[in-house]
Amino acid sequence: MPKQTVTARFANSALIGDIKEIFFNEIQLDEIVARLGRQISKDFEGKNLLMVSVLKGSVVFMADLMRHITIPCRIDFISSSIYKNKTMAQPRPDIRDILQFDDISMFDILVVEDILDTGRTLQGLSEYLLDKGAKSVTICTLLDKPERRDPSTTIKPTYIGAQVANEFVVGYGLDFDEKYRNLPFIGILKPEVYKD
Questions:
Q1: 196 residues of the chain, pLDDT tens digit each
Q2: Strand partners for 96
Q3: Which residues are part of the catalytic machinery?
């Protein structure tokens, strides 16, 4: 990978050796997030917006996204995953409710996710928040991987940063084995890193 494509502070990082290629650099990510922020600000004008970050992957994305939103908003966090270990998925998501707000009936919730692949996590989470009484639930995902969608799900994100092919991507909050989240770009992980 050419060194000039990597932020100077990461040019000599051991993490870089595991990256096959950079998918989105910092400038491209900033443009994507700014575009989403403008659209969300317009669409949620006059609504009681609560942005809910799905931990841990979307924290970096949400931190940047909320700084591009120009209307009043609140933030909260929830933990939800279909993965029992590094790569093994289970049928239904495990939701750990850590929301600060007990009563969410007053909020139009924007679920902020790092990547939408099978759709099972976001479908389960959306149903859970609606069952808890949310006024509405809308999905914003940084990346959408439609090739991986489970046909049994009906989840349709309103806001998509970019569609990606079925590659194992890391960085900008996305991880493998809890590593690579701190990379300031999104890169494709070399297969030998995640394959047994």
A1: 444 456 677 776 778 889 999 999 999 999 999 999 999 999 999 999 999 999 899 999 999 999 999 999 999 999 876 555 555 555 566 676 668 888 999 999 999 999 999 998 899 999 999 999 999 999 999 999 999 999 999 999 999 999 999 999 999 999 999 999 999 999 999 999 988 6
A2: 79
A3: 117
Question: Hunting for tokens 């600060």 — which residue is that?
Answer: 100
Round to the nearest angstrom and report the end-to-end CA distance of the chain: 24
Q: What length is written for the chain?
A: 196
- The DSSP code sequence of 26-39 is HHHHHHHHHHHHHH
Please tell me the number of Cα atoms within 13 Å of 139 on its side-chain side. 24
DSSP 42-79: HHTTTS-EEEEEEETTTHHHHHHHHTT--S-EEEEEEE
CB 26 within 8 A of CB 7: yes
Tell me the residue ranges of DSSP E strands in 59-152: 73-83, 89-96, 108-116, 136-144
Domains and CATH numbers, the chain: 26-190 (3.40.50.2020)
C-alpha 69: how far from chain center: 17
Check: CB of residue 112 under 8 Å from CB of residue 140: yes
